[in-house]
């Protein structure tokens, strides 16, 4: 996705392949979720169901998180060519995910607290009405999951038929320290892309559906056995689900924001294997994510015979996830 023409500077557009399509789907799910959120919170308050209110607030956290994600999609697209963003705007989705995760964690604590209060001070519940609204909420969650499902699976490795927009020309430069450097974009369309916004949205919708199921079970058992305490207990369970999701999202997004490589990421090792073949030795290697499915790398190496940076850059073209590569070569003493 990073374009380059002769006589122009490199662009650093590292948005996900499905950036615009993801944004449209997020807006659609926001509309569905917001309508159902209002209905559930109002109905739960009127009928005295804490589980229903908890499910409504759970939906509100989902809608809030998706709204942050949607705004991030819009801003990332509008600012994609802004030179102020040195490595593009691909990380805005991760920043939005981290911010929404903090909000979700706070709301989860509030839900748990309100549920505890309801356990200590139980109120009458209109079970039949509350169950009807909870079932509708579950249906909305399932529809939302279906809308986001294709993006979720796509983000786990479906390949595209797009052409390769890679930059196969190396821009070598010689410095005062007797080394050569190359700056290139060997793979613009990255495969196996993971969009943290869409991945988190999909998982969260499933969590919403689970919370709806818990609410329905609590209301059914409560109406049959008279267990009023079970309803707010499900509110606590719903809060724990949100908290667990929030922690997971904070971890995954923080990893990207801090330029850390996940433990499962094999790319640095694969780069070393590709480069160190004829006596070369990598002396400094930095690999980090700059957008969904896009990684940048800085490779400094020594070699018995200092070939051009383009030679080593060509070795890395097998990795489509490498969208921005800088190579520095120094001849071994």
UniProtKB/TrEMBL annotation:
Start and end residues of each Cation efflux protein transmembrane domain: 26-258
Transmembrane domains' residue ranges: 26-47, 59-75, 95-113, 119-148, 201-221, 227-247
Any single Gene Ontology cellular-component annotation: membrane
Main location: membrane
Cell compartments where the protein resides: Membrane
Record region (Disordered): 154-191
Domain of life: Bacteria
Compositionally biased intervals (Basic and acidic residues): 163-179
Gene3D superfamilies the record matches: Cation efflux protein transmembrane domain
Membrane topology type: Multi-pass membrane protein
Pfam families: Cation_efflux (PF01545)
Start-end of Basic residues biased regions: 180-191
Keyword vocabulary terms for this entry: Ion transport, Membrane, Transmembrane, Transmembrane helix, Transport
InterPro entries the record matches: Cation_efflux, Cation_efflux_TM, Cation_efflux_TMD_sf, Msc2-like
One Gene Ontology MF term: zinc ion transmembrane transporter activity
GO terms, biological process: intracellular zinc ion homeostasis
PANTHER family according to UniProt: PTHR45755, ZINC TRANSPORTER 7
Descriptive protein name: CDF family Co(II)/Ni(II) efflux transporter DmeF
């Amino acid at each position: 996705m990073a374009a380059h023409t002769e006589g122009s500077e490199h662009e650093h557009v590292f948005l996900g392949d499905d950036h615009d399509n993801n944004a449209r789907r997020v807006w659609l799910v926001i509309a569905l979720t917001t309508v159902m959120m209002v209905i559930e919170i109002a109905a739960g308050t009127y009928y005295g169901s804490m589980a229903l209110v908890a499910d409504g607030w759970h939906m509100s956290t989902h809608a809030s998180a998706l709204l942050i994600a949607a705004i991030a999609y819009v801003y990332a697209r509008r600012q994609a060519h802004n030179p102020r963003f040195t490595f593009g705007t691909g990380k805005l989705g991760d920043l939005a995910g981290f911010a929404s995760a903090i909000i979700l964690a706070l709301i989860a604590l509030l839900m748990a607290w309100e549920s505890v209060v309801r356990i200590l001070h139980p109120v009458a519940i209109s079970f039949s009405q509350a169950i009807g609204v909870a079932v509708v909420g579950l249906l909305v969650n399932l529809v939302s999951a279906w809308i986001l499902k294709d993006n979720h699976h796509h983000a786990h490795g479906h390949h595209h038929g797009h052409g390769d927009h890679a930059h196969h020309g190396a821009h070598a430069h010689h410095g005062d320290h007797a080394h050569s450097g190359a700056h290139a974009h060997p793979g613009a369309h990255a495969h196996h892309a993971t969009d943290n916004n869409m991945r988190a949205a999909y998982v969260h919708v499933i969590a919403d559906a689970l919370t709806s199921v818990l609410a329905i079970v609590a209301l059914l058992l409560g109406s049959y056995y008279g267990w009023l305490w079970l309803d707010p207990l499900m509110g606590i369970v719903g809060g724990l689900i949100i908290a667990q999701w929030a922690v997971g999202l904070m971890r995954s997004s923080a990893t990207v924001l801090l330029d850390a490589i996940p433990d499962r990421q094999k790319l640095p090792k694969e780069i070393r294997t590709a480069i160190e073949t004829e006596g070369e030795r990598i002396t400094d290697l930095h690999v980090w994510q700059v957008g969904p499915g896009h990684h940048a790398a800085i490779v400094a190496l020594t070699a018995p015979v200092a070939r051009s940076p383009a030679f080593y850059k060509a070795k890395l073209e097998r990795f489509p996830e490498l969208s921005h590569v800088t190579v520095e070569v120094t001849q071994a003493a």
